[in-house]
Write a structure and sequence with these properties.
The chain has three helices and twelve strands. By secondary structure, the protein is an alpha+beta fold. It has three domains: about 100 residues; about 55 residues, Beta Barrel (Thrombin, subunit H); about 90 residues, Beta Barrel (Thrombin, subunit H), CATH 2.40.10. The chain has a six-stranded antiparallel beta barrel with strand order 1-2-5-4-3-12. A six-stranded antiparallel beta barrel has the order 6-7-8-11-10-9. Helix 1 packs antiparallel against helix 2.
C-alpha cells in the first residue's frame, strides 16, 4: 500500500499540489482584501511549500535508495556472470586447442585424463584413465595440445601408468628447430637437459625444441620445449643445453595418447646413432 502511494505521488505530485493550491486560492478569493488574511496566506503557502519539498525529497530519496540497491544487485550478478563466462572462455579455448591439435596429427589420438600423480623426484609418473579396453599399449606416446608429456609404461584394463618427462628413465631424441641440431633430452633430477652439444654449434635461449626425425618412439616435430640456458663443460668443448618444457607437467589434467604402430614408426625413421638412446 505504501509503495503504491509513493508511486502515485511521484507520478502525480505536481497535479496534486496544483489542485490543493487551487482550492485554497478559490476559498480565499472572497476575503483576499483583508491584510491579515493575505499575511496568513503568505505564511501558510511558505510553510506548505517547505513541507511539500521535504516530503518530495524523502520520497525521492526512498526511490533512489531502492534503485541503488537494485543496481548493486545487478552489478553483483553481472560480476558473477562475467567471472563464469571468463572461465568458460578459457576452458573453451583449451578444448578448441586440443581439438585443433587432434585434427593436425596423422596418428589417431585417444583422449583421457590424469587421475593420479606419484613417483619420486627422479622418476615422476602419473596414472591415466585409459587402458587395454581403449586400445592402449605399452610404449605409446602421451601428449597435450602444448606438446610432449611422457610415454605409457604399464597397462591394465582401465588404467595405464605414464613415465612423464621428469623421469630419469625417459629419454627422447630432439632437434633444435632453428638449426636442426640433434640431441637426446633427459631428466637428471633437477633439469631437463640435452648433453654434449659441441660449443661450435650456435644455440640461444628460447630456441624451440621438437622431436627429432630420428626418434623411434615419437613422431617427428612434436613440440617439446624451449632453451632456458646453455652450460659449457669444464673443457669448453661441449655444452649442456637446459630445456623448459612447453607443458607444465605438475598441472596436466587432460591428455592424448597417440595410437602409434611402433613398427611402422621405426620403419619411417633413420636409426639413432647417438651415444644415448631413447627409452
Amino acid at each position: 500500500m505504501k509503495s503504491a502511494f509513493n508511486s502515485f505521488y511521484k507520478n502525480y505530485k505536481e497535479y496534486i499540489l496544483f489542485a490543493i493550491l487551487l482550492l485554497i486560492s478559490i476559498s480565499l478569493l472572497t476575503i483576499n482584501a483583508d491584510s491579515k488574511i493575505r499575511k496568513f496566506k503568505a505564511i501558510a503557502f511558505g510553510h506548505f511549500a517547505i513541507v511539500s519539498a521535504g516530503v518530495s525529497e524523502i520520497i525521492d530519496w526512498s526511490e533512489d535508495s531502492k534503485d541503488f540497491k537494485k543496481l548493486q544487485e545487478l552489478n553483483a550478478k553481472l560480476t558473477l556472470e562475467n567471472t563464469l563466462l571468463k572461465s568458460r572462455v578459457i576452458e573453451n579455448n583449451k578444448l578448441r586447442a586440443m581439438l585443433g591439435f587432434k585434427n593436425q596429427k596423422l596418428y589417431p589420438l585417444i583422449a583421457g585424463e590424469v587421475v593420479s600423480k606419484h613417483g619420486s623426484v627422479f622418476n615422476g609418473q602419473f596414472i591415466i584413465n585409459l587402458g587395454t579396453r581403449d586400445s592402449i599399449t605399452k610404449g605409446m606416446p602421451v601428449i597435450t595440445e602444448k606438446g610432449i608429456v611422457g610415454m605409457v609404461t604399464n597397462v591394465s584394463d582401465k588404467f595405464s601408468t605414464v613415465n612423464h618427462i621428469y623421469n630419469s628413465e625417459f629419454n627422447v631424441a630432439v632437434t633444435f628447430a632453428e638449426n636442426n641440431t640433434e640431441g637426446i633430452l633427459s631428466w637428471n633430477g633437477r633439469t631437463l637437459i640435452v648433453r654434449n652439444i659441441p660449443t661450435t654449434t650456435h644455440v640461444e635461449k628460447d630456441y624451440k625444441v621438437i622431436t627429432s626425425d630420428f626418434s623411434t618412439i615419437f613422431p617427428a616435430k612434436i613440440p617439446v620445449g624451449k632453451v632456458s640456458r646453455v652450460e659449457s663443460s669444464a673443457a669448453g668443448l661441449l655444452s649442456d643445453i637446459v630445456i623448459v618444457p612447453f607443458e607444465e607437467i605438475e598441472s596436466v589434467g587432460n591428455i592424448f595418447v597417440m595410437k602409434i604402430n611402433k613398427q611402422e614408426l621405426f620403419l619411417n625413421t633413420t636409426p639413432n646413432t647417438s651415444k644415448d638412446k631413447e627409452e
